[in-house]
Inverse folding.
């Protein structure tokens, strides 16, 4: 099984001993947003963050370095070769905003953590949440709210553009 929240925090602490973290870095927060990361993934996260800081000629790792490393490990590198039109960016923004809006309106959903239209891997954008607790047995109300948030992108596309794009396919798979 993947390490739980406490184990992830400890694993991050162990690997962070090899590098210099900025005083503002909260490894507990990073542990919360790395659910389903293995110990090797967490070690890689610290290494990727160190590489990112080094490329920017910094001697300390900042929270953003860790966030970017997490995104890269979970979803792939930024897709810099993908050329997107203004319309595609607008559609992606509405799609991700739809997820976020439902998440903010549904108190049973895990809190919103990050929203981006930067494409990574095959994803055109991402809406991340941050679980408040490590819970493997959710109530039906949370499950329904999370499913509604998953459909929020499609609903936003239909409301704004009159139809949904193929971008909803992974959301439908997840829901």
């Amino acid at each position: 099984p993947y390490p739980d929240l406490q184990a992830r925090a400890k694993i991050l602490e162990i690997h962070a001993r090899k590098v210099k973290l900025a005083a503002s870095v909260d490894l507990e927060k990073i542990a919360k947003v790395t659910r389903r990361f293995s110990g090797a993934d967490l070690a890689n996260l610290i290494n990727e963050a160190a590489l990112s800081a080094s490329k920017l000629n910094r001697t300390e790792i900042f929270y953003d370095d860790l966030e970017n490393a997490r995104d890269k490990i979970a979803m792939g590198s930024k897709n810099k070769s993908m050329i997107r039109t203004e319309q595609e960016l607008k559609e992606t923004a509405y799609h991700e905003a739809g997820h976020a809006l439902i998440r903010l309106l549904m108190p049973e959903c895990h809190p919103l953590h990050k929203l981006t239209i930067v494409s990574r891997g095959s994803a055109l954008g991402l809406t991340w949440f941050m679980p408040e607790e490590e819970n493997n047995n959710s109530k039906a109300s949370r499950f329904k709210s999370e499913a509604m948030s998953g459909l929020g992108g499609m609903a936003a596309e239909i409301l704004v553009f009159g139809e949904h794009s193929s971008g909803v396919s992974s959301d439908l798979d997840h829901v």
